[in-house]
Each structure stands twice: as C-alpha cells, then as structure tokens.
Amino acid sequence: MFDAQSPPGVTAIILAGSRPGPDPLLDGSGVSTKALLPVGGRPMLAHVLDTLSRHAAIGAIVILAQNVAGLRADPELAVWIDDPAIRFMESGAGISRSVLAAIDGPAALPVLLTTADNVLLSAAMIDSMIAGAAGCDIAVAMVERRILLARYPQSRRTWLKFRNGWWSGANLFWIGSDRARPMLERWQSVEQDRKKGMKIVGAFGPWLLGGALLRILTIQGAAARLGKRFGAQARIVAMPQAEACIDVDKPEDLVLVEQILAMRA
C-alpha cells in the first residue's frame, strides 16, 4: 500500500513514442506505434495507465509521444481522453529533451518516469520506487540478476556488472528536483547507446567505467559518486520484484509478458 509519508501528488510521465527504424514487434500487428501494440487483448499503454491512475501517490500523468493524435483516437484509451489529470504531450527530438520540456511545462516535480512498454508495472513496484527514491534528486530502478533469474530464467536482459552483482534497468526513474537537470542533459549524448551498458557508464566519466570494469564499486556507490560529480544526490533503487525489469522490447518479451498477465488474471 501507498505509505502516507511518501510525497503526495507525484507526476507520472509515460514515454509512449516510437524509436526510428523498423520495429519487428509491429509487423502484422495492425498498429503503427508501439504504445498501441495489443498485449493481453489491450494496448500496452492502457495497462500502464490503469496502474498509474489507480495509485494514491500519483497526482497527474503526462503521456509523451510523437503521434498524440493516433493515441487519442484509439478507442481503448477513450476513458482517459477527458480526464483532467491526464495530459497528452507531443515529444521532441530525444527522450531527455522531451522529459525536460515536460518538466518545464505540465509535469510538476517530483516525477516518476516510466514507459508504455512497462506493461507489468504494479502498485507494489510504484511503492518500492517511491520509498527507495524519497529525498534524492534522481534515482534509477534496477533489478539484480539473481532476483530475475530465480523466477524467469528464460528472460534475456542487458546487464551491468558491478562489485555487488549484475544489474538490469527497470524502466522506472525518479526526478526529485531541478538538481537532476545536468544529469538528464548529459544523458542526451548516450540515448542511442542505451543497450550498450559499459559505453553508457563510460560516458559519465572514466573513473566510473574503471570502477565498474575492475568491480571495485558497488552499483549504489557508483550512483552516489556520479551524482556528487553533477551536484545531485543520485541513488539506485534495488527492486524486489523480478517483473520490474521485464518490458516488451523483443518478440520473446511479448510472449513472456502475455504469460505473466495470464497468470495474474
């Protein structure tokens, strides 16, 4: 359950755009954008909106996409079109720039950032992220490999290796204050390499890359040092839910997510 001590009125931002180039997930799907891909009989975005709109900590939702008109025209999303707490916003060039524009506009801080393909998002995950990120300027949710493989050994992820384990991103991010802005601006230069873990680590400083490669840093220690460099308090939130790092990036992900949704039902 939502802790009454958590920050009230958190703004959720959902990244619901499409990356350049062909997407094998959309072949034969009948939809033109990933956010509308049917999963469990409903568009991916509908699952995420359901979870966020029902959570007591979420005060407003901003949906960022290149094709806002296409999303608003989908009948499965009609229930949210006139909701005053939900706003559709055209995204710009690049994720970081679009998020910064949203923060400068309708998205009041603090912000919980997620993606339309985070179909398995649950209230428990939101609770874990808010509790773990409370009081910091920027936080990233991660899942340690043993947590995931204990439940879903067939799942393939991109892993970052540190002294205290192998970690994969969970598509949940916390922006707690404007002190996160320099790190978001730095992220713009590595967005296209999001699946090349060590290249991303190195882009934030050779000392961080060396610490990761030599395994002399824990991932939490690396985040703290990185934040200090940018004048912010940065934190890794270790998620206890294995499903937190399972999104829909590949056809095999879609199969696994469908199976998990069926088990939940």
Automatic annotation (TrEMBL):
<protein>
    <submittedName>
        <fullName>4-diphosphocytidyl-2C-methyl-D-erythritol synthase</fullName>
    </submittedName>
</protein>
<feature type="domain" description="MobA-like NTP transferase">
    <location>
        <begin position="30"/>
        <end position="187"/>
    </location>
</feature>
<dbReference type="InterPro" id="IPR029044">
    <property type="entry name" value="Nucleotide-diphossugar_trans"/>
</dbReference>
<keyword id="KW-0460">Magnesium</keyword>
<dbReference type="InterPro" id="IPR025877">
    <property type="entry name" value="MobA-like_NTP_Trfase"/>
</dbReference>
<dbReference type="GO" id="GO:0016779">
    <property type="term" value="F:nucleotidyltransferase activity"/>
</dbReference>
<dbReference type="Pfam" id="PF12804">
    <property type="entry name" value="NTP_transf_3"/>
</dbReference>
